[in-house]
Amino acid sequence: MTGIELLKRHRYRLLQLSSMRARLDALRGAPRAPVLTGMPQGKGLPGDPTASVAEKILRLEADLAAEIVAIEEEARAAEAVIAVLPDQQAAVLRARYIDGMSWKRVARTLHYTIRHCSRIHEAAIRRLEEDVAQCPIFS
Question: Pseudo-torsion of CA 79, 80, 86, 92, nearest 10°?
């Protein structure tokens, strides 16, 4: 996997993580029926309707924790790719791919225009492609 692919994959995984967090928040906010004790139950019916929601929350939290660990490992690899670039290029790529910012937020944070961020990004990608082309491993 090239550096560019690694950065794009990491950005995609950040979006997945955000989606998982939103689903978890939605489950946590789901209306719950009150737990009634001592009530008769029919055959095969669960006694506590919130048990299935709680089980889903626990499962999703475990999945989320595993994703966070995997994404942190990818972030370290992406940081290593970015580390070879000049500061300005590294800052743009870090904000976009590691921190997961939109282009508008990248520009605002770094005090550039969106167009200037785009030019810096293109230069950084070109440099990464040249580094990959010169590397004997990828030849």
Answer: -20
Residues found in the chain? 139
Instruction: Tell me how far apart the alpha carbons of residues 92 and 109 are, in angstroms, rounded to a whole number.
Output: 10
pLDDT tens-digit map of 84-120: 899 999 999 999 988 889 999 999 999 999 999 999 9
Q: Classify residue 112 by its DSSP letter.
A: -
Total-model pTM: 0.65
- Output the CA torsion sign for 5, 138, 79, 21: positive
* Alpha carbons 27 and 11: distance in angstroms, whole number: 25
CA 120/CA 26 separation, integer angstroms: 38
pLDDT attached to residue 139: 43
Distances (CA, A) of 56 to 45, 52, 64, 65: 18, 6, 12, 14
Q: What are φ and ψ of residue 43, in 5° steps? A: -65, 135
The number of helix segments (H) and strand segments (E) in the chain equals: 5, 0
